[in-house]
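Justification of resources, computational component.

The compute hours requested in this renewal are based largely on the per-chain cost of generating structure records like the one below. Each record pairs the submitted sequence with a full structure-token output. That output is archived, and it is also reused by downstream analysis tasks.
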Amino acid sequence: MRTKESSLAEYKAWLKERWSPLVALIPEEEAEEYCRDEFNKDLKDIFLCERRVKGLNKGLGVPIRTPAEYPIRLHEVTIRFCSAGSEFSVLSDASDIIAAENQLVDVLHQHMPEEERLDDTSEDLPVYFERYCEALFDTLRFQVHETQDDPLICLFVMHVSSIETWRQKLEILEQNLSPKLLTLLSGGMAQRHVIFVGEYDEKVDTALKLYEEEKGKKRYSLPSYVDLSQERENTIKSSPGMQLVTFVEALSSTCLIPFIEERIRELEVVIGSSRRGLKNQLKTFLFRKSTSSQSSMSAFDGSEESEHSIYSQSSHQFQELNKASVEAAMRRQSDLLMMVGDYNTAISTLKLLSADLKSDKLYFHYASAQECIGVANIVGGISLATCIGHFKESFIRYAGLIEAEKGFGKSLATLYSTRLSLTWARLLSSIGRYSDASWIIMRAHFNEGSLRAGLLLEYSSYFQAQQVPPKNRRRGFHLVLAGLRYGQSNEMKLASLMHRKAIKVLDGRGWDVMEEHLHEALGQEYRDAGENAKALQHIASTVTCMNIPGHLQSHHMSHFIDLYGKVAEEMGTKSRIELDLPEFDTSHLRIISGGEHDYFDGASRDIHPRVWKEMEICFPRVPSSKILPKVNKDASTNSSYAGEDILVALPVYNPLKIDIELDDLELVCSTSDQLQADSSLTCSREYQHLYPGEKTMIYLKCRPLSTGVLKIEGLRWRMGGIPCEKIFRPNISKWSIEPENRTLRGGEIEFQILPPMPRLKIGLTSFPEEVNVGEVVECEIEMTNAGAISLHNITAIASPSITLSEAIVEDMKEGSEFRQYRYNFQLPVSEKSKSKLTFRAEHPGHQTVYIVWKYEPLVQVGCQPSRMLRLAKRIHALPILDLRAFLISSAETEKLLLEIHNAQTSDIILNQFCLHNNSAVTSFEIQDQLDVGASQELSYGIEEGTICEDAMHKHKHLHLLANDSKYLISQKDKSPMGVLYFTSRETNREAFVVSPLSRESEEHCILGQLCGPKSLNHNFSKGPLSINLELRIQSQLHETVDACWIIGQTPKQARVTTNLIWKGEKCGMVHDIQPMEKRFIILDTLVHSPGLLQIDNIYINWNTRAHFQAGSIKIKSSFITINHVSD
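The structure output for this chain reads:
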């Protein structure tokens, strides 16, 4: 990988080559034919092979005297050779711009990739982009306001056969030159030299001597003949002429460098007489404005050009400066100084020039001078920050011209702005500032046409990829924009390539909107090309995009189904597609199979295995004579028994905003040789309807009917008539309920199918979820043998609160908390046996009871001697006393009434119960009847916040008859607050906790209502529909209430067929609701598709200020019908 220093050095070398001396090759036709025939190259390519000259003057270098304090010595020089053809065209009007654009398009087409390459991870830019940029830079060479591309030497190359008529040939060649080259030659700004090439013989030698005598001696002399024979692959003999390498060295040291030095001195005389020095600068500052305006007016009037005139024609931004003006001399001298490496003098000259051009408001020439100052700073190693500052100033001036000009001026300024942005961005990328480089390119692309804007956007995406870490989201966005601009310019091949690159960047990152656009564009492209199979892959990807409107998802689904039908018709078969729709969460896949341990239900299966092991260790050990060897069973595989179902529970999620219907949903299984027959394996087929956004669990069964190895590889289904499949790739750590008995090999679920075994199933009837403490509950157990073999030796281990009838209680080890039972009967296949189960709760609260049955097959045919059935039931034991609280309100008083009710079938006597009072009530009164009035059968008083352990002063106990009640009523006229605890001293257990409000009156304390429209019409093509709903809350209590409203999850059974989004908060607090006061809350929603909208997930939790009363209510469901209408 290149370092920052090496990249910057390469950038400097590239800029230095742009400011190297230029030599124009003007060959005659015979000389060109000679080079092609002999060397299979053009003359320009032959000279370019030797363009770098090192070790000038035998390593001593060539000294050059410039305006600098010390002379400069050149030890090497690079020469640019070019042919004086179309490369020297000048952009003078709009037609030239159009012709240049067409040539750039031709260059792009010549280097277009033959095949669409999808590998965009390479750090190199595409070849077509690099060639296009080179052509763009070449197009802007030799323009009127820059001189670094003006040839310093015009080298006329003739064949040796034309020696005798060289003067006539020279005149013909000069007549075909462009006006700009003729002006340079006639004005002494370029030298003219003639050389000859060809086969050397005696006749040629004589003619060359005559030519030398006729030409005579000149100040800058070059050899007349150049031998190009070293360009041949096999050189037999060398000619006496000068070799090309030697000629290029002589051209540099004897002609080119001395001529540059001479031109610098001549221009310094002009500049020094009018611009250098404090006196001249002060004179320019005082008188330049009036002088320039007069010169401009004289140019407009058609008067003769003055020596001091800046402009050659009218004062237009894009016209050439007058060659006789000091500004033109300054620009030409600065370019020559940069060619020989005197960057400090060039910068000082360019700064003077920039000040003059800016004061004359010639911003186009000013921007070019600023660009040149930036180049001099970076190539000379002076200041990187100063270089960037001048580039920025130049870019701003070009942008101003683009906005101000029209027609030709606007187009030319746009080209130069793009050239500058490419130069600037390359500098920033060479020092690792890729983000800034991307920003510059993005700024430049706004002014360009579709084709070049697409190229710049692709270049910007390249910089995004170079950053650490890569900016993939922005890169993908720029590639999408590049594809759009390529499509606008009818470059469909490049547009397709950008879309493919963008898909590779964005795939799997959750940016569905861009992915949907890209896949749809590529799918339509392949479909138009007749490649329906490739189009189907992209259209399938649009179906799985989630974050797009529902009507678009429905459109893509219909398109996908139609296209699949065409592909199936072409191929003659309906192959299955692996489509990630709906989403199956294989990381939480659950396997429910018989095996050694079976479970009563899912709740029993969720109990931690440690609990079951603690119970099963109480079973007596099996004698060693009954243990069979584990044959045909790998210890690392799962096991099941022939004839028993294997159940796969798999979470499924519909990520779309439309309904999905799955038909023929079944498992995909592969079997061993023993299970090859279709009759040896059956799989259930299910139907599943998924609402938008619904998450649910699907259960699929397969039943092997003989022994062998069974692999569950995935599942398949049909969606809209399209066969789909999903291969399981579950997470090893999560896919199984019992990790100690389950393994995973290569993403497959493998079972060893063992010979058939008996299977015990238990059915419970009348087993309640809630019981009273001390109450004896009796239910019926139905035991069924659902296996293929009779079973016997049934034993059970149960919790101590469980009693099994028709079973013998066996002795347990001392200290064991469980009970063991044994059944003395056999259970044939499909036979049933009924017995009783009794349960008694010892204490209140939630508790779980456990039972494990162990049984053995009557005939041992497999490797497993016994099986177990595990059962767990969770029960809530209620207190023995029921307390209900009521508020008795009148105009003058408000009292608390507590009803103590004994719901048992026997009397209860509470000895010395305890009362905890944390309210403002200071005394209570116990009454047998509510209408007794002020009966003083029992009264007592306690202070607020205290506990009275012996509150019964007159009576030692409180006797509650069966199904009887006692009443406690407050004596003080205050709003009672608090909780009462009654504790029985005999058991030292809490009998009940008083709730200050009965369940029957909760819903009448706080009223809630959701108000909104019943029906709405909206055009969803213009965007989503916004609906404002009003939530009303009213208090029915006689004290201050705080309420909290919550938007919960939508239940699965809700009939929601639209895409609803809550824009605002999903919860909030409402404080200080006064008695009978109403509050209003506005809920903002956003709906993306039509249908029936059901809102039934809003709840209100409330409590009084002192937390004496609290509760929760659910708002009644609200329905809104939303219809789609078109304008």
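Residues 244-274 form the longest helix (31 residues). The two ends are 59 Å apart (CA to CA).
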